[in-house]
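User: For my dataset I need records formatted as: sequence, then structure tokens, nothing else. Please produce one.
Assistant:
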Amino acid sequence: GPEQEKNGKVIPRIAQDIQAGLTIIGRRDASNDPKGKRINLILADVSGCDLKLANLKNAIMLKANLFMANLNNSELFDSDLRRAKLDEAFLIGTDLMKADLRDASLCGTNLRGANLSGVDFRGANLTGANLKETNLTGAKAYKSQRQHFFDADGAIESFDQMIWFENPEKG
């Protein structure tokens, strides 16, 4: 079937050919990438995929579905994840420095030990996210999102190093 169970939760099963393609992309030698070109996974449905240790620096993953994906210890430096679905995904130890996560959904996402410095979280939903041992220096969020960060597991020690913006509705 298209889905499998893990810890009592139904997780999507990704087609083998798609997983193989993602593995090749993630393991490529990025120094050979053409100048000015970026990995394009816009609108990609790769829920449940295994991208641990993947090199996806500077990738464009606008509106991608990464539900329950394994991105542990991967490189997502300066990637575009606006409006991406990362609910219940694993990003333990992942480098997301300067990533754009505006309006992304990170409900229940495990970001333990991730580098989140300079990440733009404005409009993102972090309900139930694990932010233990993360670096949030220079991360951006709206003041109305403070409760998301307070309710999240961990990270309180980095709050004073975050940049808080007024809500767009208020001008």
